[in-house]
Amino acid sequence: MSRLPIALSCGEPAGIGPEIALSAWQALRDTCPFVWIGDPRHLPAGAPVVTVADPATAGAISASALPVLPLSFAGDAIPGQPDPRNAKGVISAIETGVDLVRSGHASVLCTAPIHKKALIDGAGFAYPGHTEFLAALGGVDRVVMMLASEALRVVPATIHIPLSQVPTALTPGLLRDTVTITAQGLKDQFAIAQPRIAIAGLNPHAGEGGAMGTEELDWIAPLIAQMQDEGLRVTGPHPADTMFHAAARARYDAAIAMYHDQALIPIKTLDFDRGVNVTLGLPFLRTSPDHGTAFDIAGKGIANPASLIEALKLAQRMAQTRQGPQ
């Protein structure tokens, strides 16, 4: 077990974050201690809570109560109804979690889902999402979003942009950085000494010799060959429609996709409930459940905590990998 607790930021209080945090504690309290960062008022009524000033006490508390590092939010939490008054508190919870990890008081940051519009309306949030905000807090220009489960690890080279913009946004520099950061993350955070990375083509059938697009011939295949010469264990460009069946997945440790849906459709098909978002390239470890705030079911007691549970378990394993033998 990691010596330090995981820091779990509360996310959007009106979403399912508070209730799945409680469910995750009930499932993991004896094996994976974490500190929930947020306003205790926002947790489900009757939740066994102990507020803490020092996250180091979480291990002793976790068996009997959910350790909470309390922050005071401006508004209540009404399920399904985000309150912009809480935006500054949500942002503060993320910043606090980053500070705890970077100062050595927590091992990993795990983040519950946020609601971007509420953050913009209430605090003028200037980032496209969690990942970009964390990159700014970490002082890095480029990070990589990995979706990970037992079945598949996949990284989209381009993320939340229109499909029409992908061919322009996808450059040799971006793809090289994505592969390099992914390879280093697999070594550092997943203990894979010589990671094998499969790279998808951009076009159907990886361009089919130029008949369906020439990017593969013009620069993707030459870049892959260059990276192979440099010692990286990369293959491709592969037709995306044949990369994700079981036999193909056995031949690589992570797949690089060229755009959002090319990456997220296979992992959500293979393991919808247990996928985990991992940010590679940060100066600290971060995981997150691979879903949103789910306002439509918030407060109804039916939210599935599986992805958060897996995010916390993976966070613990990554911390152990980073720390080495205890």
Automatic annotation (TrEMBL):
Its EC number is 1.1.1.262. Its main location: cytoplasm. Its cofactor is Zn(2+); Mg(2+); Co(2+). Keywords: Cobalt, Cytoplasm, Magnesium, Metal-binding, NAD, NADP, Oxidoreductase, Pyridoxine biosynthesis, Zinc. It holds the Pfam family PdxA. It is found in: Cytoplasm. It comes from the Bacteria. Pathway: Cofactor biosynthesis; pyridoxine 5'-phosphate biosynthesis; pyridoxine 5'-phosphate from D-erythrose 4-phosphate: step 4/5. GO terms for molecular function: 4-hydroxythreonine-4-phosphate dehydrogenase activity. Substrate binds at H130, T131, K268, N277, R286. Binds 1 divalent metal cation per subunit. Can use ions such as Zn(2+), Mg(2+) or Co(2+). It is an enzyme of class 1 (oxidoreductase). A divalent metal cation binds at H160, H205, H260. It catalyses: 4-(phosphooxy)-L-threonine + NAD(+) = 3-amino-2-oxopropyl phosphate + CO2 + NADH. The active site is located at the dimer interface. Homodimer. Belongs to the PdxA family. Catalyzes the NAD(P)-dependent oxidation of 4-(phosphooxy)-L-threonine (HTP) into 2-amino-3-oxo-4-(phosphooxy)butyric acid which spontaneously decarboxylates to form 3-amino-2-oxopropyl phosphate (AHAP). This is 4-hydroxythreonine-4-phosphate dehydrogenase. The lineage of its organism: Bacteria, Pseudomonadati, Pseudomonadota, Alphaproteobacteria, Rhodobacterales.
